[in-house]
Structure formats: C-alpha cells, structure tokens
Amino acid sequence: MRFRLLAIGTRMSDWVEKGVHEYNRRLPTDFCLHLQEIPLARRGKNTSLEQVLRKEGEAMLGHIQTSDYIVALDVKGRQFSTVEFAQRLKILRGRGRDVCLLVGGPDGLGEQCLERADEHWSLSSLTLPHPLVRIVLAEQFYRSWSLLQNHPYHRE
Q: Which of 8, 36, 135, 155 has the smallest CB count inside 10 Å?
C-alpha cells in the first residue's frame, strides 16, 4: 500500500522540492507521499482550455491502476480538520489499496479525473498555488502520522 501524489507540473522551485523531501524524510516508508510529476500539456495559441485539461487528464490517468483508490484535490471537495484528515488516512491505509491523490495544474483537473475519483478533497476554500499544495500535503501527512503515533509534533 502506497500513497502517491500525481501532480501536473515539473521543474518546481528548489524550496518546493526541499519542503516535500523534508516531511517525507521524517515519515516511515509505508506512510510517505510518493510524488510523481506529470508534465503540463503543451499550450499553443489555438489550444483550448478543454484540450489542455483533456490532455493532462489522459496523462494523469495513464499513471493510475484500476485497483487504485483515487482522491481528486478540488476546491469543491470535502474539507477536513487535522484529526479528521488523520483518521481518513488511517482508514484508507487499512484498506490495503494504493491511494493516488491528484493535483491538477494551473487550470485544475480534467473532467475525466474528477469523474474517476472515488473522493474529492479540498485543502482550503482559498486558492492555493499548485507547488504549495505539494508542501501542504506532505506536511499534513507528517502531522497525521505524528497524531496517529501520539508524537508531540501536533498540538491541539
């Protein structure tokens, strides 16, 4: 069982890669967030937004197995408290299926990704830059693990 983060966009700033790495370094290997970057679709002056989202969605779905449990990160998704998030990860981990969290590019997720998702989550009602979403997720995975282990990192 693995948690995988499929994210549109490559060549992130150094601070993004360092942030994700730092939180993953603290986690046991069976709880860390495996990042897989998917390149942005090529955009031309005659390329529509629908075409871009479709291409990115197809590329993203190409990395998903039929047995994977899919979570789309979407502003319209369900929001969790920290404790609820930790409990949700615990439940998903207990199911034994790989969990793929999908993060779209600057234009969001394609419709086919939203339809394929088993759940839709939102990290905030704020619009977050997609590179920052990677760090927020990695930190929340570490916070969730620490909470489930009664580690003092999380304070209520």
A: 155
Structural domain of 80: 3-148
How many other CB atoms are found less than 10 A from the CB of residue 124?
10
Q: How many helices (H) and strands (E) does the chain have?
A: 5, 5
Is residue 155 one of the residues assigned to a domain? no
Answer yes or no: is 13 within a domain.
yes
Global confidence as pTM: 0.92
Tokens representing residue 113 in the block: 């990704």
| Angle at CA of residue 125, ends 85 and 61, nearest 5° | 70
- 76-130 pLDDT, tens digit per residue, is 999 999 999 999 999 999 999 999 999 998 889 999 999 999 999 999 988 888 8
Q: Which residues of 52-84 are buried (b: 16+ CB within 10 A; e: fewer)?
A: bbebbbebbbeebeeebbbbbbbeebeebeeee
Nearest to 33 by CA among 95, 93, 80: 93
Q: In total, how many domains does the chain have?
A: 1
- Whether the CB-CB separation of 6 and 60 falls below 8 Å is answered with yes
Report the distance separating Cα 31 and Cα 128, nearest Å. 24
